[in-house]
Amino acid sequence: MAGHLPRGAMLVVARLTRSWRPRYARSPMQISNFPVLQMHKSQTAMRASQKDFESAVNQMKLLTKDPGNEMKLKLYALYKQATEGPCNMPKPGMLDLISKAKWDAWSALGSLPKETAKQNYVELVSSLSSSASSSQGKPDADSKQPGYETLVVTSENGITKIMLNRPTKKNAITTQMYQEIMLALEAAAKDDSAITVLTGNGDYYCSGNDLNNFTDIPPGGVEEKAKNSAILLRDFVGCFIDFPKPLIAVVNGPAVGISVTLLGLFDIVYASDRATFHTPFSHLGQSPEGCSSYMFPKIMGSAKAAEMLIFGKKLTAREACAQGLVTEVFPDSTFQKEVWTRLKAYSKLPPNAMRISKQLIRNVEKEKLHAINSEESSVLQGRWLSDECTNAIMNFLSRKAKL
Ligand SMILES: CCCCC/C=C/C(=O)SCCNC(=O)CCNC(=O)[C@H](O)C(C)(C)COP(=O)(O)OP(=O)(O)OC[C@H]1O[C@@H](n2cnc3c(N)ncnc32)[C@H](O)[C@@H]1OP(=O)(O)O
Predict the structure, then answer these.
(1) Hey, what domains does the chain have and what are their CATH numbers?
(2) How far away, in angstroms, is 389 Cα from ligand 1 center?
(3) Distance (Å, whole) CA 100 – CA 91
(4) How far is CA 86 from CA 14, 37, 103, in A?
(5) Ligand 1 mean position to 282 CA, how many Å?
(6) Does ligand 1 have an atom closer than 6 angstroms to the CB of 276?
(7) What are all long-range contacts of 140-143, with beta carbons under 8 Å and residues at least 24 apart?
(8) Potential cystine with 106: which of 77, 325, 326, 376 (Cβ 3.0-4.6 Å)?
(9) Is residue 225 in contact with ligand 1, taking CB distance under 6 Å?
(10) ipTM over 0.90
(11) Is 156 a residue whose pLDDT tops 80?
(12) Is the pTM above the cut of 0.80?
């Protein structure tokens, strides 16, 4: 069937039909620390959730730029394969060019399993949305900085944009991603951009710490793991405390855990009205980080902060804005356009003046924030060794709990 397509299209189909592998693989050595994970791994390795698929289908409807006929054919074929399976329609007549092109593209997928087609569709839409959002008043492909595997970092027109790029995992932050974010912030602090933006690719802003981080146990055992994680956390949050330029969060969708707590250290937080904010620390047997134990009561008052940090209450974007955690909420349909227009204007303000103003605001309590960060990290080190925490993480990874 692939013979019906030109060579270029065949290569694309070959790429689309390759079996999907998760971006990171857990070795059996790591998994063996948690027997329950061995079962989970084989059950979920090939799964793209129905929800991901539906949200990709919806994302396609929102795409403002025409992706071109070749891309539309690929998406059509994958959609049909994912929803109906292999093509068994009669071949259209030679003169019905459009129907024939569609039939050819679908037939070329042969017996590709529905689940794989779904996953490939999700990945293709995600790559399209990512390039569409980077062309919406934002840096073009040429400005993409090399060397990052979990991020897309671009710098153009006075704006450095750090985009979390694990959309199929809701941008959960892996150990590698923590390291790359720190490197990207360090570089952005020194580059010639006026402002720095953190955002997420796909339907989520970020689902917080990747809970699989806890399955990678070093030779020194869980104590060493907890100690290393506390150091990583302290250094990571420290980069946000010390960041010298205006730092803006463009919260494109739901935010969980550390991606929420850190917002207290940003200068501006713009949110889509689709975004939600929650910190399920107690549910996970954990405790607050990102200086939120200090910043949240300061921003929203102790009663509202307690509802979020102790009881894990989820806020809508409008509620988070009313509490002062979010600067402004925009309708999802115009979010990217409105936010990037605003940011482009801000990026033209004199950079030194903005930097100096930010430092005046931050320097008053920088030392205090570092002390709070150290204390939160060391309390968490103890929490990660508790039964409450271990059980909660095992439950999530074995699919008993969603937070
Ligand atoms: C070392 C520094 C430590 C810093 C301390 C930080 C603490 C925190 O951040 S605590 C918060 C941790 N995050 C969570 O507890 C969220 C867990 N995730 C969920 O509850 C859900 O996945 C969801 C509500 C975020 C999304 O639900 P849903 O829309 O139903 O989508 P799926 O669950 O099917 O997710 C798709 C895919 O992504 C994986 N995933 C999502 N979030 C995480 C995560 N935080 N860690 C690991 N994996 C995550 C999820 O497992 C699915 O994967 P596949 O099954 O392989 O498709």
Answers:
(1) 50-129 (1.20.80.10), 151-402 (3.90.226.10)
(2) 15
(3) 7
(4) 16, 33, 11
(5) 16
(6) no
(7) none
(8) 77
(9) no
(10) yes
(11) yes
(12) no
